[in-house]
Inverse folding.
């Protein structure tokens, strides 16, 4: 899974804004993200959870805060594109599990570098069961980064199904990479590579 942007970078970039504090008068989709932001910041700022021996507990709590706001199954389905329909129900379940684990592990590892950067929302639009939340922030280098959250209404709750970072969609980026591997090799090879990355991330977490 080589090439730019790389796999882990986009796993991080997709969720980058979740842990930056902000103020906004936007509507319900943004309010829902705020709930996740507040929980995440509280975990990151909790002195009891900062020591090295609390890493496992801290990351588990972060996963619990993040998971409800994202529809990882939908993101996995969209990222696989037309190949999703060619997979058996068992293969689909396996793919969702691997995809979710990779994104969660990449995210919780990355956000621990949080140092209080701020960002703002610029616009929110809602059309029936779909919504987009436009936002921007300045990184430590002073560069302005734009990020758009794409959400949809599921069982009365707003869930993120894609994030667009600097006009590049997380889902479309993954789909391009996945389709390339499948076209050049096979679906089985894609799963093998994802599992290998999953193992590498898990090994790194155990070493910390």
């Amino acid at each position: 899974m080589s090439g730019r942007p790389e796999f882990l970078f986009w796993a991080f970039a997709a969720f980058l804004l979740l842990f930056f504090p902000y103020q906004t008068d936007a509507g319900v989709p943004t309010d829902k993200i705020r709930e996740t932001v507040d929980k995440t910041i509280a975990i990151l700022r909790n002195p009891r959870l900062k020591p090295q021996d609390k890493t496992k507990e801290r990351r588990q709590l972060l996963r619990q805060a993040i998971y409800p706001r994202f529809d990882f199954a939908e993101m996995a389905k969209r990222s696989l594109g037309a190949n999703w329909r060619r997979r058996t129900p068992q293969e689909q379940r396996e793919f969702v599990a691997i995809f979710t684990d990779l994104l969660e592990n990449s995210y919780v590892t990355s956000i621990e570098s949080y140092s209080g950067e701020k960002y703002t929302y610029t616009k929110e639009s809602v059309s029936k069961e779909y919504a987009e939340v436009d936002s921007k922030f300045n990184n430590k280098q002073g560069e302005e980064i734009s990020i758009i959250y794409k959400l949809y209404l599921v069982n009365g709750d707003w869930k993120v199904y894609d994030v667009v970072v600097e006009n590049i969609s997380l889902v479309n980026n993954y789909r391009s990479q996945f389709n390339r591997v499948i076209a050049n090799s096979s679906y089985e090879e894609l799963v093998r590579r994802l599992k290998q990355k999953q193992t590498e991330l898990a090994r790194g977490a155990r070493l910390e």
Observations:
- The domain at 7-207 is CATH 3.10.450.710 (Nuclear Transport Factor 2; Chain: A,).
